[in-house]
Write a structure and sequence with these properties.
The complex is a heterodimer. Chain A is mainly α. Chain A contains 16 helices and two strands. Chain A has two domains: 505 residues, Cytochrome c oxidase-like, subunit I domain (Cytochrome C Oxidase, Chain A, Up-down Bundle), CATH 1.20.210.10; 34 residues, no CATH class. Chain A is globular and about 65 Å long. Chain B has three domains: 58 residues; 144 residues, Cupredoxins -  blue copper proteins (Immunoglobulin-like), CATH 2.60.40.420; 114 residues, Cytochrome Bc1 Complex, Chain D, domain 2, CATH 1.10.760.10. In chain B, helix 5 packs across helix 12 and helix 8 crosses helix 9. The chains are: A mainly alpha, B alpha+beta.
């Protein structure tokens, strides 16, 4: 596969040998790269190389995903029978809380930024490392410390408040390990903040010469928007959760009316972060999808500027809609209306992205690779997830559907169908860059299809269960809902197969995978100009960028009906511009 | 239980409107999802690698096209918003004649008091076609009162009243759920709402709610007292009269409660507060925070003394103290209490001896009995164990 596979019948376009590489790239695995530069355990645990830290994160969050998935499996087993298959109510409550807490705070929030973001961001901007390499290492240690504390709390004694920690249940009534879990989440939150600071500074200050803002890959725009949300939002939830601990331990009244506090205040503060947190999880995936669709279509992302700014718009408007989680509280009717209308508006930038990705395929040269199948799956699932969000932004329907299985289905379509599918697409797309080896394409395609089917089988029935009124977080339920629960659990077993196959073949490929070479997909972008795996210093010399993002073909702008400056056709452009 | 397995019974005035909106949203979802899905798959298939098609001048930007798929969805979204908001306001437009019922949520049961004095646990009986307003409060954590057939839910919060208004339109037995996670037995905190024909409801109310309607249901008891009478007897018991009866008011012992409900009160710190249910409750629990202008706060806090149920009873009594009663003479102000007093005097004893302890005993059983056992009882009550057995 190479760029020459693109065969336009229109203007010819020279094959620039894998993404504008100025120098010839090595074909095999380079003898010395970041993975084998040093073999000691110490060299890994004390590394400041962003790529190695990315790998450390990858291993850590994979373990978290496994644990969160395991608790989900137990939850699904329990729910096959109305009176519960295996657990007591208390054990069930701890199980779904573990699932939520692990998946949200220890997997989804750090997933893409800390792994792929860490690994790729300096490569994509042409830098040798992130701006603050030691802060980066510290963030991993914070994550591990926070993760271990939280896992400890979940394992020894357990936590049964759900991942939302609603007061005054969490602060006064729960007898479980709330305080310890919160301290863990607090620490993990600071690891996110450290990563976000690092990203923002790196994007501002360390771009290669010629790499202007509008030549940045859209993944970088997505990471930038995500980092903004993390920096502005995470401190709020950290403080909020800490206040829960303060009330719990010192009985200082903040949220409990018995102590003079206000329980709804917690919901305001919690969702002020936790709604934008949804975008922390989904924006990076959107960035990946832009990269993957462009590379698999050999086409510049349609409407680059719209897509780039929609990420920033989502980051900004995402902070103004938290009250839509509280339509069923004592929140004033008028406040609810304001939050409702803003929630409808925040859906627009996401819709713009979906339409633009669709248009990107037009006149492309589409390879139905595994990563493209993942991306197409993302498009379908995210569209359903986004549109079902409107049922919950809409006041009248929300008052029926909120806190039922409908909402469970909706956010899993966004979080799993969107965020996790995007993460897997990205992991596959850059796997050769990270490891130097290709995964088996057939198995990857198969697992992408199984995941898509299994996901829908698992979560679609939950929409129906929610509409017919089944409340979430129920250990026992009315028999009439059993059919939907059994369907969902059956689908979950398919989903689990789709999750396990990649684990097997990705590990297999580490040893037996074909040698990938620098640019196996014929993609453009600075990360593909260096060897796979990259050397510790990323680039042998500082790259100079003289081309636009996704320049898979002469860039044609319908507005001006001309080609904008490009390395091969500058004269033509200048003339037409005058006209 | 519904006409379709996919559509639960629409049993409130609100439900039909919500369903209409819901299915329009479903149509929009299907339309947009298939539009995106079909377009992207068709394009990808047509432009698959190796397929000889015209790829000349691949466009990567077209402002007009992009605006055309950005602007119309905004208007579509706003349209849905207005429609939805219009339906939503119905849930707040409580008519004057709404039947008021009081709900206290606690881990893990619903305690319901009717104005006529009938009390129920985990069951709510209401007549079809009459607007109902529930005034709800929680005694501990946040709960949510949810009846899917009404397409409505509202959080029941500690510390402040929330309300829930609807008009039931179809007779039947509907699930009542707690829909805000509230602890271990959250999934067993619930029961049934019975929407009865007017005649059946009359019969049920006349029997003091003692007609068992469902197997396993708790036969509720009035103890022969209305909510107001209960409030009056508490008023006597806690000697509220020593400061708030007209005679005491005249001696300057305390402010009069006659005609208080619904008035705006001037507080010493400059605040103006409407004397609604929430105000009455807060004054009983936190008198020091509501110093009435011109009065020194002499009232003790009844926090921990009066339960939320009892506060609602006292509120009902205070609400019943209308100025007309007072106008017929200073003596009758006390007389109103006195008139109420004989009833409690005779009935309070049995209530105190049998009714109330039975209630608390019931609560204790739920709280302290071996979990598995009560789980089982409550599971069968909520989810119809007998149906399962069939």
């Amino acid at each position: 596969m190479s760029v020459s596979a693109f065969d336009p019948t229109g203007e010819p376009w020279p094959d620039r040998g894998g993404g504008n590489a100025a120098e010839p790239v090595e074909v095999g695995i380079p003898r010395v790269n970041y993975l084998n530069a040093d073999h000691t355990i110490k060299s890994w645990l004390l590394t400041t190389d962003h790529k190695r830290i990315g790998i450390l994160y990858l291993i850590s969050i994979s373990v978290m995903f496994l644990l969160g998935g395991l608790s989900a499996a137990i939850v699904r087993l329990q729910l096959t029978a109305p009176s519960g298959l295996l657990l007591s109510a208390e054990a069930y409550n701890k199980m779904f809380s573990s699932h939520g807490i692990i998946m949200v705070f220890l997997f989804l929030v750090p997933s893409i930024p800390a792994t792929l973001g860490n690994f790729l961001l300096p490569l994509m901007v042409g830098a040798r490392d992130l701006a603050f390499p030691r802060l980066n290492l510290m963030s991993w240690y914070l994550f591990i410390a926070g993760g271990l504390l939280t896992l400890g709390a979940l394992t020894f004694g357990g936590v049964e408040t759900g991942w939302t920690f609603y007061t005054p249940y969490s602060s006064i009534y729960s007898n479980s390990n709330v305080a310890l879990a919160i301290v863990g989440i607090f620490l993990a939150g600071f690891s996110s903040i450290a990563t976000a600071v690092n990203f923002i500074v790196t994007i501002h200050k360390m771009r290669a010469p010629g790499l202007t803002w509008f030549r940045l890959p859209l993944f970088i725009w997505a990471m930038y928007a995500t980092s903004l949300i993390i920096i502005l939002g995470t401190p709020v939830v950290a403080i909020t959760l800490l206040l829960v601990v303060v009330e719990r331990v010192f009985h200082i009244g903040i949220f409990s009316p018995e102590l003079g506090g206000d329980p709804v205040l917690f919901q305001h503060m919690f969702w002020f972060y936790s709604h934008p947190a949804v975008y922390i999880m989904i924006l990076p995936s959107m960035g990946i999808i832009s990269e993957v669709i462009a590379a698999n279509s050999k086409k510049r992302v349609f409407g680059y500027t719209f897509v780039a700014f929609s990420s920033v718009a989502i980051a900004v408007f995402g902070f103004l809609v938290w009250g839509h989680h509280m339509f069923a509280t004592t929140q004033s009717m008028y406040a609810s209306m304001v939050f409702s209308v803003l929630s409808f508006l925040v859906a627009i930038p996401s819709a713009v992205k979906v339409f633009n990705w669709t248009a990107t395929v037009y006149k492309g040269s589409v390879e139905f690779s595994a990563t493209m199948i993942y991306a197409l799956g993302f498009l379908g699932l995210f569209t359903i997830g986004g549109l079902t969000g409107l049922y919950l932004a809409s006041l009248a329907t929300d008052i029926h559907l909120t806190a039922t299985y409908f909402i469970v289905a909706h956010f899993h379509y966004i979080m799993v169908g969107g965020a996790v599918t995007g993460y897997l697409a990205g992991l596959h797309f850059w796997w050769p860059k990270m490891t130097g080896r290709l995964y088996p394409e057939f198995w990857a395609k198969l697992s992408a299809i199984i995941l898509f089917v299994g996901f829908n089988l698992t979560f679609f029935p939950q929409f129906v269960a929610g509409y017919v009124g089944m409340p979430r977080r129920y250990a026992f339920y009315a028999p009439e809902y059993q059919i939907w629960q059994v369907l969902s659990s059956a689908g979950a077993s398919v989903l689990a197969v789709g999750m396990l196959i990649p684990v097997i073949y990705l590990l297999w490929s580490l040893k037996y995978g074909k040698i990938a070479g620098a640019n196996p997909w014929g993609a453009v972008g600075l990360e593909w100009t260096t060897s796979s795996p990259p050397p510790t210093t990323n680039f042998h010399e500082v790259p100079v960028v003289t081309w636009e993002a996704y320049e898979y073909h002469p860039i044609h702008d319908d507005d001006k009906d001309l080609t904008i400056p490009s390395p091969t056709a500058p004269e033509v452009t200048a003339e037409e511009r005058k006209a | 239980m519904g006409e379709l397995p996919f559509r639960p019974v629409a049993a409130s005035s609100y439900a039909e409107d919500v369903d209409r909106l819901f299915f329009v949203l479903v149509a929009l979802t299907v339309f947009f999802t298939s539009a995106v899905g079909i377009t992207v798959l068709a394009l990808a298939a047509r432009y698959r690698r190796g397929n000889k098609v015209d790829r000349s001048r691949p466009s990567s930007h077209n402002t007009l096209l992009e605006l055309s798929w950005t602007i119309p969805p905004i208007f579509l979204g706003l349209g849905v918003f207005f429609w939805s908001a219009k339906i939503y306001t119905q849930a707040y437009a409580v008519p004057e004649n709404a039947k008021e019922i009081f709900v206290v949520g606690k881990q893990w049961m619903w305690h319901i008091q009717h104005s006529n004095g009938i009390r129920e646990n985990n069951e709510l009986h209401i007549p079809v076609g009459e607007p109902v307003k529930l005034t709800m409060i929680s005694q501990d954590v946040i709960h949510a009162f949810y009846v899917p057939e009404f397409r409505l839910q509202r959080q029941v919060e500690p510390g402040q009243y929330s309300s829930f208004y609807f008009t039931p339109t179809k007779t039947g037995r509907y699930h009542l759920y707690c829909n805000m996670y509230c602890g271990t037995q959250h999934s067993l905190m619930g029961g049934w709402v019975y929407v009865m024909s007017k005649a059946d409801y009359q019969k049920w109310a006349a029997s003091g709610g003692s007609q068992p309607v469902a197997p396993g249901g708790t036969p509720s008891k009035t103890g022969g007292l209305t909510l107001t009478q209960r409030g009056a007897s508490l008023y006597e018991k806690f000697q509220c009269n020593s400061c708030h009866d007209p005679a005491a008011v005249q001696r300057g012992r305390g402010p009069s409660l006659v005609g208080l409900y619904g008035k705006t009160r001037q507080l010493a710190d400059g605040r103006k507060v409407k004397a609604d249910d929430g105000y009455l409750r807060n004054v009983l629990y936190y008198p020091a925070e509501y110093p009435l202008a011109g009065w020194a706060v002499g009232m003790p806090s009844y926090k921990g003394v009066l339960t939320e149920e009892e506060v609602l009873q006292i509120n009902a009594y205070v609400k019943s103290l209308k100025p007309t009663a007072q106008q017929s003479g200073a003596g009758t102000g006390g007389g109103a209490t006195a008139a109420a007093a004989p009833v409690p005097a005779t009935a309070a004893a049995p209530t105190g001896a049998a009714g109330a302890p039975a209630d608390t005993a019931g609560g204790n059983v739920e709280r302290n009995a071996p979990a598995a056992n009560t789980d089982n009882i409550q599971f069968r009550h909520m989810y119809g164990g007998e149906q399962q057995g069939q």
